[in-house]
Amino acid sequence: MLASIRADYDAISIEGARIVAELVRKKPDCVLGFATGSSPLKLYQELIRMHREEGLDFSKVTTFNLDEYVGLPPSHDQSYHYFMWENLFKHINVDSRYVHIPAGMADDIEEQCEWYEERIDEVGGIDLQILGIGENGHIAFNEPGSSLGSRTRIKTLTEKTRQGNARFFGSMDQVPKYAITMGIGTIMEAWRLLLLASGKKKAQAIKDTLEGPISAMVPATIVQMHQHATLLIDEDAASMLTVDWQLD
Ligand code: GLP
């Protein structure tokens, strides 16, 4: 695990985009795992800039998103489908046939989850998975208590996560109660992990993730076991760390 502490959100985003772009150039048909939320937003903007100005080519890239709310259609402005198309996919030359986002409207959610796992296997696994982190240390929608070996499945969202996202929905009642999420075991099989954390609100989760014991109660702590995990953290998110992590 490599922790890289950078000045601010812009700096982690630019470094994250550089790592993604390097892989896309080296392996044009790579498999990228994407995340939603504010953490990767600037990284996506930087990828869009690289596509426009430097011709970064996504035409052969396959993508898998971490999660999706159950019950929101792709056209809903809070669905993760909508987020990904608005904030990244429609601005780059990704082939929509190679884009995978769990279908939150699927009739048979269990079947959808199995299909998702099979698709990841069929393409040979995820080369690089981008991750954010919840204030309670969740990754994707693997809330505290999630099995560390879990696979893609439906999860009930915690009140804290729903409250955290309520601002996007207008009121708490409108925040979905369930989501489909890749499991922690699924995420851990990605060849490389890139976790982004910015801001004081993430400081406790980052302290737990880097310095705490591995625990299902803080799902992100499992990244300590990953062979190629890079944590890009800004100074605010790193503000509670006690160990002198690599500063570069
Ligand atoms: C949601 C998403 C996670 C994301 C987290 C943090 O719960 N399912 O994938 O990491 O929010 O979001 P943000 O990056 O906006 O802080």
Detailed description of the structure:
By secondary structure, the chain is an alpha/beta fold. It has one domain: Rossmann fold (3-Layer(aba) Sandwich). 32% of the residues lie in helices and 17% in strands. It contains seven helices and ten strands. The protein has helices spanning 9-26, 41-54, 80-87, 109-122, 159-169, 184-188, 203-211; strands at residues 2-6, 31-34, 62-65, 67-69, 99-100, 128-131, 153-156, 178-181, 192-197, 229-234. A seven-stranded parallel beta sheet has the order 1-10-9-6-2-3-5, sandwiched between helices. Strands 4-8-7 form a three-stranded antiparallel beta sheet. The chain starts with a strand and ends in a 14-residue tail after the last strand. The mean pLDDT is 96. The site of 2-amino-2-deoxy-6-O-phosphono-alpha-D-glucopyranose has 13 residues, from loops.
